[in-house]
Amino acid sequence: MPDSAIETADLRKTFGSKVAVRGLTLEVGRGEVFGFLGPNGAGKSTSVKMLLGLVAPTAGQALLLGRPLGDTGVRARVGFLPEHFRFHDWLTGEEFLDFHGRLYQIPAARRRRRVAELLALTGLAGHGRKRLRDYSKGMLQRIGLAQALLNQPDLIFLDEPTSGLDPAGRLLVRDIIRAERYRGAAVFLNSHLLSEVEVTCDRVAFIKHGEVLETCDLKKLGVEERSIEARVRDLRPEALAGLEQWAGSVRLDGDSLMLEVRAEESVPEVVAYLVASGARVYSLHSRQASLEEMFLRIVGTEAGL
Amino acid sequence: MTGVAVIAGLTCREAARRRLLAVAAAIGSAYLLLYGFGLHKVLESLPAAASRQLLFRRQAVIVLFAMGMYVVNWLLAVITILTSADTIAGEINSGVIQAVVTKPIRRWEVIFGKWLGFAAMLTVYLAFLAGGMLVEVRLIGGHMPSHVPEAIGAMWLECMLLLAVTFRFGASLSTLATGVAVFGLHILAFLGGWVEEFGWLAHSQTAMDLGVLASVVMPSESLWRRAAFELQGPVIGSFGRGPFSIGSVPSGWMVVYAGVYLATALALAIRTFSRRDL
What we know:
The structure holds two protein chains of two kinds. Chain A is an alpha/beta fold.
């Protein structure tokens, strides 16, 4: 598709007998902020590394801004903040950005201007002449973000951009992502902080065992996905099992019944079903499902490693 | 080639910033001071009658220069391996390389740029040490050894070869394993050189063949032996055998082989780094 920033088809990576990414198929549009969610070890970082050419896929195909993976030219239009940001810490902030600007082949005058702009944007204006080894974790995260924006990229990969940042830093990242989207850039956001993803992303993909389980539009989240909490007695086990036709996740704790349904229209159906099954319903409350509840429904509660 | 120049520049800047250049310059200067002092004392202690004989004094200066160059050769080998073992392996291990190779730069440019940066610094260092020694033997000894450019050329080639081999291992092994592997190969070559020399003295073809085999596996020491051969004077035999005098001389073909070995090691380093996951 010509408007895709990223397009992958059955992208697969194995390390010996271990399957890191089973078959990644997804599409990210230009100007879209796309969240990539999953438990630890789900294959998120390996997927990002494949897209950036750091790791060679075992099978499958992918296009970045319409060009095949590994195309050197397209990297001039891509920005990347690695998860474990490790940089040449003997450089000063200014030298570091200048070096990466040279790698992008940005002309000297524009590079100088851009370095000053980005230091100001990331709140590091007074720290450009300090060595990176003297930066705090949050400052390193900010300078890493600045480095990813040097070339005014069309596609930005941010791997855990808010880890190590205080609330003000998180707000800054959120504002930068919004500004980049406004400029027309696509942002591929890999984050554990679901609350951050919820407020910044247009769409999210849930990944587990190296496969996309579900992709959903966050603008519709809360309109369709509902969380139901009810106080119920005399609910027979077979009736409880029958609730799974509407809900991905059903839990009964004493009288307290909790379930997440995929559509608001399911709520009256669930109520009618409970009454018809002979259960006595004392109270029932339905509210918008959070991204966290959605994550748990789709990915499950099994802890990642 | 812009990427190569940027990476080469960064490599030199890193060496300066991390005080590698300062430490190497301090060690080199200390060595030159010590060597000059020792040269003066040795020549001063020669028997008055022998010292007056021009030929004898010239040979003494030649041997002392070769001895000094032997130390320079080892110093350079150690510095080459120690300073470059971490440059690829360390950046892969720490993840520093990730933000670099995702820029519009080819992986071969990263390797070649780093190699070029180290090669330039080591060339200057060799010139500093060898130049300093030449000035000292001229001023203190009163003579200029012959065939110095050929000898320094062979030593330079050895240094570049060790650098390329270190890069080859650094592209696939950890820093420590890289250092151990390259030192191991260099020591093997060193022992092979001695075995070949003893074989030449004892007329043992088997020992000489073993020495040649070691030089084929790692030709670094054969380049030093070629340099020592270039430096030794015509009547050097009167001073006995040692690392500064050569009986079994590595041929010109061995020098060509070392050049091919260097290019192959560098090409393999680029190939391995270009294909590996980071």
